[in-house]
Amino acid sequence: MKRTKLILFILIIQFNFGLNLILHDYDNPSASHILDAHITENILIIVGMLGGIEIYDISNPIILNHLANFNLPNNGGGGGSKPKCVSTYNNYAYITAKNGVAIINLENPSNPQFIGYIPNTNNMILENLDIEDNILAVCAHTDGVLFFDLMNPENPNLIHIHEADNAWAVEIVNNIENENKIIYVGSNSNVEILELNNTNLELLYTMEFNHAVKDIIENDLVLYVAFGTDGVKALGLSGWLGGTQDSPNILDHYNTAGMANRMSKFDNNIAVSDWDDVEILNWNWATESLIKTGYKNTTRRTMAIATKENFIYSAEWNSVQVMEYGEIVGADIDLNTYELNYPYVGVGDSYTMPLEIINNGNSELHFEDIFSTNPEFIINNFSNLMPGESQTIEVTYTATEENASGGLRIWSNDNDEPDIVCETNGNIDGANIGEAAPDFELEIVANGEGSFRLSDHLGEIVVLVFFAPS
Question: CB-side exposure of 407: number of CA atoms within 13 Å?
């Protein structure tokens, strides 16, 4: 009986306060608009749509040892090669890009060699891909999923095409019942399960959901599906693959704080890139629930994620961070946001916004100082926090005729983040929330003729979309 009580006590401490990730290293590489991260042995590959592809040596997992930056050839046309996603087979990397699936020789990771593009993949919109043994699966949106044999890694052989409405994510695993491959495909809001043998590709089952699938991975007969703003669902596969139930069953649903985009598995955990944060989820067989056991607010638009043992590599819009998952000994600070953007405030008037500070560590969080770099922003009282506690401080902006921007500097006894900054912006030069939009008139260049004047649409909802032409 005493042993049972001790085990329960340890679990409670871990679940209540072990919600943090220790930060070890940070890099701001040439690549930006980063969309994917992948680890093969001791090599981390970061793919950015702009600025190239980055290669790191992570033989020491807490240090990002940069080895190379390289770009794919564009083969003519504007807008660059726009690489998106990457997977590896032996010493080769396969990268989806605007001009097709690129093949890269990584035998010398400090000097990657471009081999070429897989023939007949240049006329498709390519997305995620996965490799198991010598089988490569490539998502090609409305062109379905392409399957290649990599026995000759520099000359892949197309063996199957699976038709799909909008193939976005794919995962290949070995079938536990035989030597075949089980393939999980995310297509629009559907999860499709296929089986591949030496000669045949068969669709076994389709599950329909209400949100678009962003990523899909299997870990220990649990299928995890990321649904963007709808979080992550865990599906049970053991009974279905074993023939004791008619379909996979939904085990649990965890609604992450942001937008669950990409996932990576380690041990019995799932690391989720969740836009403004990284979350670690764990399927607990004892409680039959999907729980959050790790968290770090990155605030840097985390788009993808990769794991090596208990080290998490957060691939953000234009940066890379290394975090370690494990029990936090000391205090550890998190903010609910690292940017306070105020609506328009009249000169002389004030507006107050809340900022929540959380202690996700296991020791008391002491604040040495919290102050604003701009006197137009005033902070209310703050106090130390015990493990698991949080407090909300009020930050009041009083407008003057000047453009107002600055930051809240917070010094604490957090070992890995002793000095953090929350940006503050009020009445910035340009458009502010709550301020009347300036009128404009632009020529219609597609889907119509003439010009568009904003004032002609008073009382209507107008959405402006800006993008760079390819």
Answer: 9
Q: How would you label 87-116 residue by residue, b for 16+ Cβ within 10 Å and e otherwise?
A: bbbeebbbbbbbbbbbbbbbeebeebeeee
pTM as predicted: 0.86
DSSP class of 455: G
Spatial separation of the C-alpha atoms in residues 18 and 24, rounded to whole Å:
17
Do residues 121 and 156 make contact, with C-beta atoms less than 8 angstroms apart?
A: no
The second-level CATH assignment, the architecture, of 334-426 is Sandwich (2.60)
Residues 382/367, Cβ–Cβ less than 8 Å:
yes
Distance CA 88, CA 100 (A): 16
Tell me the per-residue pLDDT of 71-90, one tens digit each, with 9 for 90 and over.
999 865 556 789 999 999 99
Nearest residue to 172 via CA among 207, 213, 133, 206: 133
pLDDT digits (tens, 9 = 90+) for 302-331: 999 999 999 999 999 999 999 999 888 899
**Which CATH superfamily, name and number, covers 18-327?**
YVTN repeat-like/Quinoprotein amine dehydrogenase (2.130.10.10)
**Once rounded to an integer, what is the mean pLDDT over residues 345-357?**
94
Token digits of residue 21: 């990730």
The per-residue pLDDT for range 13-49, each reduced to its tens digit, is 333 445 789 999 999 999 999 999 999 999 999 999 9
Q: What average pLDDT score do residues 149-155 get?
A: 97
Q: Under the phi-then-psi rule, with left for phi > 0, alpha for psi from -120 to 50, and beta for the rest, what region is 107?
A: alpha
pLDDT digits (tens, 9 = 90+) for 216-257: 999 999 999 999 999 999 999 988 877 777 889 999 999 999
Among residues 250, 284, 288, which one has the least CA distance to residue 269?
A: 284
- The DSSP string of 78-109 is SS------EEEETTEEEEEETTEEEEEE-SST
Cβ-Cβ contacts under 8 Å for 127 (sequence gap 6 or more):
84, 85, 96, 139, 140, 141, 167, 168, 169
Which residues, 6+ apart, have CB-to-CB distance to 28 below 8 Å? Answer: 318, 319
* CA–CA separation, 331 and 364 (whole Å): 6
pLDDT tens digits, residue range 176-206? 778 899 999 999 999 999 999 888 999 999 9
pLDDT at 440 over 70: yes
CA–CA distance, 306 with 36 (Å, rounded to integer) = 8
CB 84 within 8 A of CB 47: yes
Both tokens assigned to 46:
């970061």
How many angstroms separate the CA atoms of 168 and 185, rounded?
Answer: 8
Domain ranges of the chain: 18-327, 334-426
